[in-house]
Specification:
The structure is a single chain. About 75% of the residues lie in helices and about 0% in strands. With about 425 residues, it is mostly helical. The longest helix is centred in the first third of the chain and has 53 residues, at about 95-150. The radius of gyration is 40 Å and the shape is extended.
Length: about 425
Amino acid sequence: MASTDETGQTPRPPAPPGTTPPAPPPGGAGAGPGARMPRWLPRAMVLALTLIAVFQLGSWAFHQLTGLLINILIAFFLALAVEPAVSWMARRGVRRGVATFAVFLAVLVAAAGFVTLLGSMLAGQIVKMVEDFPEYLDSVINWINSHFRTELRRVDIQEGLLRSDWLRDYVQNSATGVLDVSTQVLGGLFQLLTIVLFGFYFAADGPRLRRALCSVLPPARQAEVLRAWEIAVDKTGGYLYSRGLMALISGLAHYVLLQFLEVPYAPALAVWVGLVSQFIPTIGTYLAGALPMLIAFTVDPWYALWVLVFVVVYQQFENYMLQPKLTARTVDIHPAVAFGSVIAGTALLGAVGALISIPAVATLQAFLGAYVKRYDVTDDPRVQGHQDRGHRDRGRRGALARAWSRWGGRPGGGPPGAAGPGDAAGPRGGGSS
């Protein structure tokens, strides 16, 4: 009986000397029932699953914390904006925390006063419009009756509105929407409180924050971080300074117009136009001009047209005359780059991105400008968009010379093999062979 090995199979006899050993069976020795999984495969699978789980968890956490991160970003730029004032007070012996509190208190008092003044103005105008609504309605009804030969009455119109299904649905939707509006107001107040608290901590503990950030970097990187921080403070403060100055000029100009037209609440409307038109990019001008036009329309419809014309004319003056001169010394960013940054910031972060995009791009541009080597430009008319006439004539003569050499340099022209005046009838360079 033939002996068997431990696997139960009959061992193969050794191959004779000088012969090729037989090939192993398909699948190799490890393809049988006793084959084992490679040792690295379970660890690789566990590592891959762990990375996927960490990525999913990080993505979920990022989406959940997006609102908080945006608020922190706004607070950081707010701290950069108040940094010059806080540092100025700190250099004169005021504790940094007290200086930060004083600056934030002044900003909050100014904002609260503006909102209160604007709210009282709007409330007064709404009450006035409600009281004068019957007179407006009577004038509209009389105009319709006189031009279209109808017999409308205000009582009939009021009864029809009160009995209409549209008004009933509108009241029901408004009643259910009050809770949503209250929730949004409370959420907005909580976000404002979060921004103020983080901004206060960033401004009050600015030196400690910079020291903690630089402590984990080598000395060369520390200098770059501090320089980037200084540029960000300068650009953000310069942006707010230029915007505040343009808001003051805009408010004064519109105040003169509104006071001349005897539009009510001219000071509050002027402040509204100045702030909204400067600190809300892209659509701020049109949003700011809509409220004065509406108030002026209640006085005289022609006044609303005059306000519209003035807003458009002043916007052109600001875009082409005032803004380039003010922002050239503070932000120093091209208008096309500023417009593109506002669009990109709006697409990424909405209204917040539109507000902080210009100082962020100005900071990045100034920081990268230190690492871009620049050279003196040669005094060439083509740099200014004017082509040199002598250069153009030399180019034409060069083109004619190249064409002459291409056609064989013959006065009579023609292809290279053609005979010119004074040439023999045979081939070039000799008689017939």
